[in-house]
Design goal:
The chain is α+β, with helices and mostly antiparallel strands and 731 residues long. 36% of the residues lie in helices and 18% in strands. It is built from 26 helices and 22 strands. The chain binds 2-(butylsulfanyl)adenosine.
Length: 731
């Protein structure tokens, strides 16, 4: 799922985000305070604003929860933005109606002078590790010995969930309202990251449900960056010439510990809850740990309060189940959207947990089973320099191939000059590499004892290795860049980007072929790709008929059907990634409208700051870009904004459909109808089709469809489908 493009006012503009105007964020925020807020507006208007604001907050909270926690949105991003803006408008006009749990505060914008530290009310312990079934058994037996009075049943039930590789954080809720976030720190004291955590979209600012809520509830969990956000962030950082992060955990830590919380807001962090700290109930009772008798019940309650909890958490009964759980998670780890480095087992019974208590370092009722590290030792043969689409020079470690956790690795990124200098990594060194996450290999560092006597420190080149022009390192950037706009490497990478997944997503046109065509001098820019025909392609070695056909039809399909947001993303405008492209495509009719937009108009859009706006303006001001755009326009690659995706699913939403034969009206008309109903109109036959609509003389496609078991429709059946809603559609 994409992030919501939350409306974010440029810092300071609305004044709603300044700490001074807020009620104290550490105090308890009374329910419905907005109705008692002081102010000078007429009483009636005041009540209307106040109650509307309360309604908007509740609605936004609800949609936020559906989107970010359940991953099941019910309204479009635009509808969400409208509600959000309405609330911003009220809170700007009537600052006394702001509340600390208002969704408007999720956009960040608070500037902290430094990170304050505060003590935890209960120490946050680390966990002891086990690495084998024997060690796990020994741990369980020790717990049994320490609690001889507990029944076998109790000592046999362990709650297991993935060990998340992020950073631990404790959230405090007072009477259901989020009031504080502390990092784990040294376990005794943590850093106050309340403002930053407020921007984390899946964090409930107010507990869900009708209460009564605990007077104080401390929720513990891990702050994470999911892999997708991590990759996107590194791409963006690279584009900006900023330092990239070695792994999602570093990225999460760096993003959370920001003084400017709008940076945190833009990083897409998540919070997954896995346990509780202090719990004080409203009317005494169950002192310190709340009414939940088992860990499973606690997790269920946290979910009902609106927290996301680690995927795959479950109760294991007995050592076999526990062992099977660990094996399964280890096998599945690469398929998870976030990184894990083991599993955590916690005794399910919370009385037993309390009775067992802690050693000096760690709990006796919980333990981490760490997966074997996916590291390996190999030789760094050479450092080569890759030139990216934006001219960034990225050093790449060329390794003697080695298997790491079952995957052969022969290259790894070294990020930038500083990283190499910092690790003092040299050509010829023996190095340790590891696979963080699924396939991204990472150089951990050199093995100094094995360094050759004649090795010399690596000198980062000062020239582009491809075009030879002088590279430059701009102030505040970590990267060296080639600034030559017609550097062959930059042009090639831009073209590869244009057809890639992040761009128009043209199937069958891979980097290798683009490279080949460039080398042959046949294409010089992305528009040239569309001038190739099958015959010409067949002239290239290793190009077969099937591939050539696919190449041409895929480009043709992209030309006809590319949505505006993909087209914008494909152009590779600096600092305009997929998310920004979406925002632009939702607001501008087409490229002409985007070109006309002023800096100010651009900056009024969500997530677009002065730098992004300038970069868009600069793109249109560059002659070569304008020439390229004119060529796209002339060939009919000129998408227009799509009307909002329909709320209602139709029977054709997301289905691939192909028309063939002579129909009663022009084929384009049918194609348009299908597209409007959300179908993906194909231009050639493939086994992935859902429907083939046939007219007179359908030709060979009909037989192929029948053979492949694809539903064949005539015009009448197609019209009937158009009128049907999603739920009752025949598959
Ligand atoms: S429970 C008293 N569950 O691992 C035990 N911790 O190495 C409370 N961690 O500091 C921790 N995933 O930050 C628990 N599913 C999970 C976890 C988890 C990651 C972290 C936690 C802790 C560290 C110890």
């Amino acid at each position: 799922m994409e992030q919501h493009t939350l409306f974010s006012a440029p810092s300071g503009e609305t004044g709603i985000l300044s700490e001074s105007a807020q009620p104290s964020s550490s105090g308890v925020f009374p329910d419905k305070a907005e109705f008692h807020a002081p102010g000078s507006a007429p009483a009636v208007a005041k009540d209307m604003d106040a109650s509307r604001a309360a309604v908007l907050r509740a609605e936004l909270d609800h949609h936020n929860y559906l989107y970010h926690t359940l991953d099941a949105p019910e309204i479009t991003d635009e509808a969400y933005d409208r509600l959000f803006r309405e609330l911003v408008e009220i809170e700007t006009r009537r600052p006394e109606l702001q509340t600390p749990d208002s969704p408007t505060r999720r956009t960040g914008g608070e500037l902290l002078p430094y990170l304050e530290t505060r003590p935890h009310s209960q120490r946050m312990y680390g966990l002891d590790n086990v690495f084998s079934p024997e060690e796990w058994q020994a741990f369980v037996q020790r717990a049994r010995r320490q609690l001889p009075e507990a029944s076998d049943g109790i000592m046999n039930e362990w709650w297991a969930d993935p060990k998340l590789d992020g950073l631990a954080c404790e959230l405090t809720y007072e009477h259901g309202v989020f009031t504080q976030a502390l990092t784990r720190g040294d376990g005794e004291t943590g850093e106050v990251v309340t403002a930053a955590m407020r921007t984390v979209r899946n964090l409930p600012l107010r507990l869900r449900g009708n209460g009564p809520f605990p007077a104080r509830l401390e929720v513990r969990g891990e702050v994470l960056m999911f892999r997708r956000q991590f990759e996107e962030l590194n791409r963006r950082q690279e584009e900006l010439g900023q330092k990239t992060f070695a792994n999602p955990r570093n990225a999460a830590a760096g993003s959370l510990r920001q003084l400017d919380t709008s940076i945190t807001a833009a990083r897409g962090l998540r919070f997954l809850a896995y346990s509780a700290g202090q719990i004080i109930m409203e009317r005494g009772g169950e002192a310190g740990r709340g009414p939940w008798e088992t860990h499973a019940e606690l997790i269920k309650a946290l979910r009902e309060y609106g927290f996301e909890t680690p995927t795959g958490g479950r109760l294991c009964r007995g050592p076999e189940e526990a062992l099977a759980y660990c094996r399964r998670m280890e096998a599945e780890r690469d398929g998870l959207p976030f990184e894990i480095d083991g599993v955590v087992y916690k005794l399910n019974d919370r009385d037993a947990e309390e009775a067992l208590g802690f050693t000096a370092r760690a709990p006796r009722f919980a333990v981490a089973w760490k997966f074997t590290a996916r590291r390996a030792k190999t030789v760094l043969e050479r450092i080569t320099i890759q030139v990216g689409r934006t001219g960034v020079l990225t050093p790449v470690a060329e390794l003697r191939p080695v298997s790491v956790g079952g995957v052969m690795v022969s290259r790894a990124t070294l990020h930038n000059e500083d990283e190499i200098r910092h690790m003092d990594i040299r050509e010829g060194d023996t190095v340790i590499i590891q696979r963080a996450g699924d396939v991204i290999p990472d150089v951990v560092g050199p093995v100094l004892e094995e360094r050759r006597a004649d090795s010399v420190p690596y000198e980062f080149p000062r020239r582009c290795p491809v075009c030879g022009s002088e590279a430059s390192r701009l102030e505040g950037e970590a990267a060296w860049r080639c600034l030559n706009m017609s550097c062959p490497a930059v042009l090639l990478r831009s073209m590869v980007h244009f057809v890639s997944k992040a761009g128009l997503d043209v199937q069958g046109v891979g980097a290798r072929w683009v490279e080949e065509l460039v080398k042959a001098g046949r294409v010089k820019n992305a528009a040239d790709l569309f001038t190739l025909d099958v015959r010409e392609l067949l002239g290239f070695e290793r190009m077969g008929e099937v591939l050539a056909e696919k190449f041409v039809t895929s480009l043709e399909e992209a030309r006809r059907t590319a949505p505006l947001e993909r087209f914008i993303a494909a152009l590779g405008i600096r600092q305009v990634g997929e998310q920004t492209a979406k925002t632009l495509a939702a607001h501008f009719e087409d490229m002409d409208a985007l070109e006309r937009a002023s800096q100010e108009e651009l900056m009024r859009l969500p997530d677009i700051g002065p730098e992004v706006a300038s970069s868009i303006r600069a793109f249109f001001a560059t002659d070569s870009n304008r020439t390229l755009l004119e060529r796209f326009r002339a060939m009919g690659l000129w998408p227009r904004r799509r009307e909002q995706p329909m709320r209602e699913e139709t029977a054709l939403s997301g289905r691939r459909i192909l028309f063939t034969g002579t129909l009663s009206r022009p084929r384009e008309e049918f194609q348009r109808m299908a597209e409007e109903a959300g179908a993906l109109v194909a231009s050639s036959f493939s086994k992935k089709l859902d429907y083939l609509v046939v007219g007179e003389n359908p030709g060979s496609k009909l037989a192929k469809a029948e053979e492949a078991g694809i539903a064949v429709l005539d015009e009448k059946a197609f019209s009937a489908l158009l009128d049907r809603k999603g739920e009752d559609a025949a598959r």
